[in-house]
Design a protein that fits this description.
The complex is a heterodimer of chains A (177) and B (77).
Chain A lengths: L1 E3 L5 E3 L6 E2 L12 E6 L7 E5 L6 E5 L14 H7 L7 E8 L8 E11 L4 E4 L11 E2 H20 L5 H6 L9
Antiparallel strand pairs in A: 1-2, 3-4, 4-5, 5-6, 6-7, 7-8, 8-9, 8-10
Chain B lengths: L10 E4 L3 E9 L2 E7 L9 H14 L4 H12 L3
Antiparallel strand pairs in B: 1-2, 2-3
Classes of the chains: A alpha+beta (177), B alpha+beta (77).
């Protein structure tokens, strides 16, 4: 079918790719059918384009791509609503807001969209995790991830390896001269 | 707006499916119990309003700004 999009003009969409949110999204209850369009090939940002209204198009990202140890507890209600059978079926997207200052790009982890990739039904849920803020600053998060990696790496270089790692490795071979 | 006065453990019905019970009143806090069908979404109003507002902001993202951000992510700071 042909779909009018906000940024890519008219595109051809396989009907099997359509994602249905039977409740719509908060504030957008009338928009129920969407299509996920990568910003560019293999790009981490995607556009969540409404099929009913070309002007309704959300920028989304998978939180696991920028946040260490991201996890979301999906309620039984959501599991039964979307008929989720395995955790792998569930794909989570956070809505992205780009303000005037692009450094302050943020993802909304308080109200993520959960999609069952098998039957392509989705719902916007409210996360009850207090660490999941409404404005999670992506670039700050990436910097702090980099800092954490540097700290871990520096600790490893200076010999402060975790005990669990120590039990796994043999002693360094003695150099033969 | 309809305003009703209720005491502890008293409730109100909204339609024939939804019941709201006053579970506890302590100082300026009221604890409410809600019985509703699973298909009804229940949110604290402020969270509902915040997410609604954030959803609206998320529709304002443009292709041009995203280009700037990709440069920021790719280039070391």
């Amino acid at each position: 079918m042909k779909v009018q999009t906000k940024f890519f003009g008219e595109i051809e969409v396989n009907e099997e790719k359509i994602i249905t949110l039977s409740d719509g999204m908060l504030g957008f209850e009338n928009n129920k059918r969407f299509v996920l369009i990568p910003h560019q090939k293999d790009n981490m940002f995607k556009w969540f384009q409404s099929i009913e209204d070309p002007l309704i198009c959300f920028l989304v990202i998978e939180p696991v791509l920028f946040m260490f140890n991201y996890s979301l507890e999906i309620s039984d209600e959501t599991v039964s609503k979307l008929k989720i059978k395995t955790a792998e079926e569930a794909v989570i997207y956070a809505l992205v807001v780009i303000p005037e200052d692009p450094m302050k790009i943020s993802a909304n982890l308080a109200g993520p969209i959960v999609i069952n990739s098998r039957n392509r039904t989705g719902v916007q849920v409210v996360s009850n995790n207090p660490d999941h803020q409404i404005k999670h600053y992506i670039i700050e998060e990436l910097k702090s991830n980099a800092a954490k990696l540097m700290t871990n790496f520096a600790a490893a270089v200076s010999g402060k390896v975790a005990a669990s790692v120590e039990t796994l490795t043999t002693n360094a071979p003695e150099s033969k001269q | 707006m309809l305003v009703l006065t209720r005491k502890n453990n008293q409730s109100i019905m909204i339609g024939d499916q939804i019941e709201i019970i006053v579970v506890e009143v302590r100082g300026d806090q009221v604890k409410l119990g809600i019985k509703a069908p699973k298909s009804v979404s229940i949110y604290r109003s402020e969270i509902y309003n915040e997410i609604t507002a954030e959803n609206k902001l998320a529709t304002e993202a443009g292709v041009d700004k995203l280009g700037e951000i990709e440069m920021l992510i790719k280039k070391p700071q």
